[in-house]
Amino acid sequence: METETSLTGTIFLSKLITQYAYIHQKTVGKTADEYIRQIGLRTGEWIEGLYGDKGEDWTVDRYAEVIVDLKNSIGGHFYISKVYSDHVVVKATACPFGEVVQDAPHLCNMTSSVFGGIASRQFGYSKVVLRKRIAAGDSRCEVAVYFRETEEEGDVYRDLHYTPNHGSPYHWEEETIRLLNEQLRQSDELVMKLVNELEELREQVKQNE
């Protein structure tokens, strides 16, 4: 059976993740952004360990090379645009999630927290400015990461620390887990409410036929 677009595991997974993120945000609101941010911070620390030893000092050039390589390794098309002593600018012609990222544009918070978390651990401070986003309908992405305070609006990350030796960056605090469980419970209740409302609407339509 032929399809207009070849279905691959990557395409399917991207669609699955973006649809989950879309539903999650619709049901729990802005809290979803914080969950994405926390996941990005923890994932960034794990990824950073793949490029060198914990606490190893990086140059700005090294940092730029790493954030581009990690994005391209998972299916993005990123490249270094400019490198300065106080900030770097990277651009992209394709997102790792593909065009389906437009279904859940808040997933850009993942890019922000991964880039910002790594920069903060390396340089003590970072501000990530998402100047252009494919997820928001732009033809390409443009991301600036500053290592010093700037007036340009963005997401600030400062004084982030590494997980202690023999620890896991994916260890979630009990309070975070409790809040997540509460949000998921509310999400389930809202979904069931919507299902019941749709069922009632279906019955009304049948009665009026």
Q: Give me the secondary-structure category.
A: alpha+beta
Beta-strand percentage range = 15-25%
Main sheet strand line-up: 1-2-4-3-5
Overall average residue pLDDT: 80
Query: Low-confidence spans: pLDDT under 50, at least 5 residues?
Result: none
Q: Number of DSSP helices?
A: 5
Elements, N to C (H/E): HHHEEHEEEH
Largest sheet: 5 strands, antiparallel
Classify the helix fraction into a percent range: 40-55%
What does this structure look like?
With 209 residues, this protein is α+β, with helices and mostly antiparallel strands. Helix content is 50%, strand content 16%. The protein has helices spanning 9-28, 31-50, 60-73, 108-123, 174-208; strands at residues 77-83, 87-94, 125-132, 141-146, 155-158.
Task: Name its key features.
single chain, 209 residues, alpha+beta, 5-stranded antiparallel beta sheet, 5 strands
Short description:
This protein is an alpha+beta fold. It is built from 5 helices and 5 strands; from the N terminus they run αααββαβββα.
Strand and helix map with partners:
Layout: H1 9-28, H2 31-50, H3 60-73, E1 77-83, E2 87-94, H4 108-123, E3 125-132, E4 141-146, E5 155-158, H5 174-208
Antiparallel strand pairs: 1-2, 2-4, 3-4, 3-5
Helix pairs in contact: 2-4
